[in-house]
Amino acid sequence: MNTRRNRSLAAVAAVISLGAAVAVTATGASAAAAGCQVSYTVASQWQGGFGATVAVTNLGDPLTGWTLRWSFGAGQTITQAWNATVTQSGAAVTAVNASYNGALGTGGSTSFGFNGSWTGSNPLPSAFTLNGVACTGSAVPTPTPVTPAPTGSAAVKTVRVFWLKPTDVAFDQRYPDGIAAVMREAQRYYKQEIGKTFTLNGTVVEVVNGEHDRNWYITTNCSGSDHYWCVVQNMQQELMRRFGISSQDSRWLCVGEISAEETNQSGGGASPGWVVLSGHDADGAAGLNGAMNRWYGGMVHELGHGFGLPDSTSTDGTPMSASFYSYPDTHFSQAQKNAILAGPYGSFLS
């Protein structure tokens, strides 16, 4: 598998076929109660910096672990944290319990703190979610996911796109909308460059409720401490199994993005028939991780691998090299155009 990090993905060659595609997970009957209350306090503030304490109270059924999420509204940045593992992507902040404070019984509370930087203003966050549930100060029933019966598959000879949402990630419309926008821009670019382009499925982004939480995708089926490929491998294997897709399927060229990754150890890549990307690409498509041209160029690059192209051997001005970072000022060579059209998915272009 080709990627922006020079690694191999041996497990991607595995073929799992169950024959029928399965519809996206739906919502069914109520089960356990969930709810939470959050107190966010700026304990101290100075020019350009501040310290804050966040207290979390579980109002629902007991938890064995928790993930709190919120977004800053004025460009604040977290620089140091304690009593939780805190990561930030753009405005979006994720705090995960430490090993010693993950268990929260009904009515149980814990707290963590952090230091941050600010410019201009430092408004308080307006909304929090705990394990994907909005913290409104009251308990509500948690819907139980149910998987409906198979309902058929996407149109053949299309690029089929999935956003896999782990169980502890709240649905956010920015992700399917943003990923769809990236795919449409890549579609436009291929038409510009080759004179032909691919067709997207009628449902451009199929939102899939994952079977596991983020940590499972990050740490399961790993080789030692190297988690670089775990996230995207686990996503791909789940999508292949649940939707009856093979590793190089003649019906679809597939793109999978998952909202999970381990900082600095999770990535993605592509090979003929598949593009598999982790959290920072999903965040980028949603507009939460820098300039959009970088994510447009990245998708054009990975789709090039999906259509059968290798990486360029040098930074040569084509999107199959580091020149994709200069998108849209990058262009396929004539040899690359010919190879795409003659490749395993060239017949998908019209």
UniProtKB/TrEMBL annotation:
Domain CBM2: 29-138
Sorted UniProt keywords: Signal
Acetylation among keywords: no
Signal sequence region: 1-31
Top-level taxon in the UniProt lineage: Bacteria
Stated name of the protein: CBM2 domain-containing protein
UniProt source species: Paractinoplanes durhamensis
